[in-house]
Design goal:
CATH topology of the domain at 217-331: Glucose Permease (Domain IIA)
Distance between the termini: 119 Å
Low-confidence stretches: 42-58
Order of helices and strands: HHEHHEEHHEHEEEEEEEEEEEE
Strand content: 25-35%
CATH class of the domain at 217-331: Mainly Beta
Mean pLDDT: 83
């Protein structure tokens, strides 16, 4: 190819791509210039220069404005938090339920998604097994218990602290201030509180175990009955459980033996002290298997069934006392 032909092709190429070549040259020049600027002005190290011990001057007015602004933001945040808390506070309401045949407190509590503690406390139930069809009970809108003020000056705050629950909520549902002083004998609803386990077991009849761990026949119940000796109406303060002579007798609940001995009524007997003001008496034993002062539990054999004292045949007489008064053992035995 001749020189003139080659030069013609080169000129034709430049004419055709002159715009693209110009843009490429400009971009290259810009990148090169920027790189050179950054290299010349990039810090050589990260150390500070000579610093004065005097605080730099600044506008006090600006600082006050910032403090006020921060205080406003904090107040807004607290207000939002309180608003959320107030939304969680709902008034306490009740509705009425009529006991049906076959109902039990546990089943009713499960049906209405509420605790047994709540139903028992709000309705002042002393023995949950003794509820009767046709009886009406109250069901509150939230869980908790009724608390009877023990002394003048108690407040929703001090009561809430006892049960480790929210004092604000406690005051709200009772339409009180957290610091309202209450009089002894008054009652308030404590949301979120629970009954102690011993009291709950007592009311549900699960506090005591049967003192005989084998089959027996109830020959006398708690209450009035014809005397087996005279036929006259007489008071019977316990249960008579007939079974073979020598059958093992166990403590109905853990406790300490208060007394063992013999008298003409109960024959060989044992008395045991328990928690919560309870005592139990076991009578007519053929033999005593424990000693005064001994700690016993529901697996301890305390004696053997017999017919000593005023008895018509081998049986165990079992009595329960609550703070000195006889109570029906059937309401307590699990």
């Amino acid at each position: 190819m001749g020189y003139d032909a080659m030069m013609g092709k080169i000129l034709a190429f430049f004419k055709k791509n002159i715009v693209q070549l110009g843009l490429t040259f400009c971009l290259g020049a810009f990148v090169a210039g920027t790189t050179l600027f950054l290299v010349r002005n990039f810090p050589k190290n990260g150390r500070g220069g000579y610093e004065s011990p005097v605080m730099p001057q600044y506008s006090e007015e600006f600082s006050k404005l910032e403090d006020e602004r921060n205080a406003q933001l904090l107040a807004q945040a607290e207000a939002a938090e309180n608003s959320e808390q107030e939304q969680d506070l709902k008034p306490l309401t009740y509705w009425t339920y009529r006991i049906r045949p076959g109902d039990m407190i546990g089943l009713i509590a499960e049906k209405y998604d509420i605790s047994q503690d709540t139903l028992i406390s709000v309705n002042n139930i002393r023995a949950s097994r003794l509820i009767q069809p046709g009886q009406y009970i109250k069901i509150p809108s939230e869980e908790g218990i009724l608390y009877t003020v023990k002394k003048d000056g108690e407040t929703p705050t001090t009561i809430a602290e006892k049960y480790e629950v929210d004092a604000v909520k406690c005051a709200f549902v009772n339409k009180l201030d957290v610091g309202s002083e209450l009089k002894a004998g008054s009652s308030i609803f404590v949301p979120g509180a629970e009954m102690d386990s011993i009291t709950l077991s007592e009311i549900n009849g699960d506090l005591f175990r049967k003192p005989l761990h084998v089959w027996y026949r109830l020959t006398s119940y708690f209450g009035w009955r014809p005397s087996p000796f005279t036929g006259r109406r007489s008071w019977h303060g316990g249960l008579d459980m007939a079974c073979p002579q020598g059958t093992r007798i166990y403590a109905a609940m853990a406790g300490r033996v208060a007394e063992t001995g013999y008298n003409n009524t109960y024959g060989n007997y044992v008395i045991i002290n328990h928690l919560n003001g309870y005592k139990t008496l076991y009578g007519h034993m053929s033999a005593i298997g424990c000693a005064k002062g001994q700690w016993v539990d529901t697996n301890t054999v305390i004696g053997r069934v017999g017919s000593t004292g005023a008895s018509t045949g081998p049986h165990l007489h079992f009595t329960v006392f609550k703070r000195g008064k006889m109570v029906n053992p059937l309401a307590l035995l699990g």
